[in-house]
Structures are given as C-alpha cells and as structure tokens.
Amino acid sequence: MKAVILAGGSGTRLYPTTKVINKHFLPIYNKPMIYYPLSLVMLLGIRDVLFIVNPQDLEDFKNLFSDGSHLGMRIDYKIQEKPNGLAEGLILAEDYLKGDKVLYLLGDNIFFGHDLVKILKDAMLEVETKGGAYVFGYYVKDPERFGIVEFDENGKVLSIEEKPKKPKSHYAVVGAYFFDENASQIARNVKPSDRGELEITSVLEEYLKREALKVKLLGRGFAWFDAGTHDSFLEAGEFVATIEKRTGLMIGCIEEIAYRNRWITKEELLELAKPLSKTDYGRYLEAIAEENP
C-alpha cells in the first residue's frame, strides 16, 4: 500500500497568515503541521508517499523532505494547479499508484488516541485483503460543516452526505481514507458538486452503492483536529503541547519513528539531530538515539 497526502489548497480559512505561507508549514506546537499526517503513514509501516502540492510550494516541500531517503522512505511530489476538491487528489495520484491500494490523508488533519495505529492497521488489512473503502467517523457538535456518515445499529453505512443542511447523524468522516485500486477510476467519474468541486463524498457514495464501504467510529479517548481554522489550529497546538509535556514523548516526530521502525540507524538519527542540537527537538532526538533499542 502507498500513501497520498493532499497538501495543496489556498488555506483561506487561515487568512491572512496563509497568504504568504502554505498552512501545512505552520507549526502545531513544535513541528510543522505536515509532520503529523506523515508520521501516521510511517507508524503504519508505509514507506512510499506522494505529496500533492501547489506549484508555488513545491520547492519548499522538497527543502523540507527531499526524496525521503534520510527517513528510509521514498517521497514523491505531484503538482495540483488549483484546488478543485478532495477527490481530485486521487485523480492526480493515478499514475503514481499504478493500481496499488492507498491510504489517502488530508494534510491538515491530526489524530491521536489509544490503539489508533491498531485500528488503522486493521482497516488497512481489510482493504488490502478484501478491497473496498474504509473510513472513520468522529462525533461533532456541528455536523453541518462536515461530510456526515449515517449508519445502523450494526454499523452498516446507510448514507454519506457532504455538509448537509439536515444531518442524519453527528458523525463526521475524518480526513483519513483507505481505498482499493478502484479509487482513482471512481474519482475520474465524479461530477462537480454545486460548489464546483470534486467531492470525496461522491467517491464514497460510489463505494456505498457497490456495498464496499465500511466505517469505524473513533469514540472516547480519541482526538481529531481539522486544523484548517484558527480555533482548531490553536486547539491542536495546545493539545500536542499538553500531551508532550505530560508524557515527555513527542507526537509526530518523524525522525524518531524512522529510527524505531529501523528504517535508519542510530548514527543516521544523530546526524539528523546535529543541526538541531540547540533546540528541544534536537535534544529529544539525541536522547532517543542513546536509548537501548
């Protein structure tokens, strides 16, 4: 399985800051926002990642991640000329995927919770072995702002609706999707919505028609942030700061994950820490390297 992270867009909800910088480079506490979805990919053991980015941001992404070899990964990039909806990312990634199954992530979504990785791995295995699509629902107070999933008492998906005026549930579909090899083809057949966008909800509706869509609810003990607004951006930063200060462990530290995955050596980790040695982040990496593996 490969991963695709959608990191384009204009970030208008975070204006005026994002008039001069891509929102995915803004710091969620002590690291760029984009580190968090990438770290989730790495925790699942996926080493092939495609970033979909704006033309003007390509060099900045390359400066940040290069080709991923320093993390033991293979990172590629695809330009999105202008944002035309979330489903467009699956179309742009078609040649990259070459028929592979995919974890599709939104670059401004942040997840945290006990057993999160196990839940995602179970969903990944389900799609790898049986095909279809797998999404995750999270309770929200304002369902009118999100894509909403309706399901019965057995967890069977009944409907998916984008920003409904009369929501059928309070469970939003979060920005992490597992798709089989049909996703790009399905996305190609999506018609623009009334908003003029290719909605990811339309892709999910097609999987639902094929009876190939599953949902897992993320309940108590899970945190999800759509960090594309000022309030949620601030909340995400405060949440990460609190967890890290309480536990002494970092969330979304990509170098640490690469090391613990044994994708890089202790010496390579220390080399990555060297330019950061005067920062808490660098000292954290040095401490990780000195631990017994």
Could you walk me through the main structural features you see in this protein, from its secondary elements to its overall organization?
One of its GO terms (molecular function) is glucose-1-phosphate thymidylyltransferase activity. Pfam families: NTP_transferase. This protein has 293 residues and is α/β, with parallel strands linked by helices. The protein has 2 domains: 2-246, Spore Coat Polysaccharide Biosynthesis Protein SpsA, Chain A (Alpha-Beta Complex), CATH 3.90.550.10; 253-293, no CATH class. It has 11 helices and 14 strands. The strands form 4 sheets. Strands 1, 4, 5, 6, 8, 11, 12 and 13 form an 8-stranded mixed beta sheet that branches. A hairpin with a 5-residue loop joins strand 9 and strand 10 (157-162). Helix 10 (266-273) runs antiparallel to helix 11. The chain is globular, with a radius of gyration of 19 Å.
